[in-house]
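Quick sanity check, CBS domain-containing protein:
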Amino acid sequence: MMIEEGSPTPRSPEAKVGMQVEDLWDVQEPQLSPTEKLNACFESIPVSDFPPAPSSQVIEINSDSSLAEVVKLLAEHKILSAPVVDVEAPDDASWIDRYIGIVEFAGIVVSILHQSEKIDGSPASAFDLMNGSDDSMGPAVAAAANGMSSPRYRSLHPESPSATSGNFFETLTSSDFYKNTKVGDISGSFRWAPFLALQKSNSFLTMLLLLSKYRMKSIPVVDLGEKKIDNIITQSAVIHMLDECAGLHWFESWGSKKLSELGLPLMKPSHIVKVYEDEPVLQAFKLMRQKGVGGVPVVASGGRKAIGNISIRDIQFLLLAPEIYKEFRSITAKNFLTAVRSYLEEHQKDSPLLRNMVTCRRDDTLKDVIMKLDSMKIHRIYVVDDLGNLGGVITLRDIISKLVHEPRGYFGDFFDGVLPLPANSRV
């Protein structure tokens, strides 16, 4: 095995998996392409071999927890989603009856923004659900959440302080809607990710394809005997596994290639979902919801220079720490980034978010990108030119798409029995 000189063997549980691939790689038929070889290798390894997630990440949420409790729990454990247990399920329930879904940080954001959008012309607005709310805030929130498109409030300008007032989130987090809405009450709505789990005997290839082509953000692995989730495989864990495989022959034959050689980034610059620095930060979260993306770059006004990134998880700073923007009269994307940085410098000095925006160049290798993603604990990296102009974005899904492919008819009836996704839902 070609392991980097001086590296202990094995270096980690993740490296053990990489060495399994190496053993399998060496015995594959020589006429197979590298991708076909890797497909065969990953198909031969069960997901039960994937290292267990830290206990802090295998968090279960009771269906009678409030939205406020869920947001706090996800933020405290630095996770983006968690399975929800039906508190009314009998003790002998099967795993599929014990869990009612996976609730995501992004889903709660969707729920909150959806409530704000009901203000215009809907009989049940977010403020109808709030005790003691200030009705004068309604137009401001509707305008911010709808991108100023509502004819009823077209007099509000995006840069108007009232249009992006932080009072909405302050009111929301003290409201009965936020405190008392149970996570079980919103099950089955578009705010939920579909509940699709793997069994321990399923393969690594299945897991990789679900994370990439089928856009799952994390994958529960169930123990049929225990009737419960045994492990949760996240995008971050897969990135870390790939990073730990550096030095192995199969990895280097693929990871040593430049992004441009692999056809990365996949997306044209003109198709990148972005927000300009002087737009309301709510516009960034709205775009994430509409486009089904986990983050957007912040671009300088009047150009393509990337100055920062806003992730779906950053909504926590509005929901958990509204004081971060009380000094700001308007929450533009740029001001939001500045406020979050100041908050982190005071409260979380070790946060990776305090580092500058993480970027790469087209002539960087895929290995360079994987190492950056893992060391920075992020899920996406932006491709820029020599002037810092935005040229693309690379995510774990893009990386996996260059590692393996879905064989014809591979999933067969795998998805049978999974409830159809609502029209507005994205995996």
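Posting the structure with no commentary besides this: The mean pLDDT is 77.
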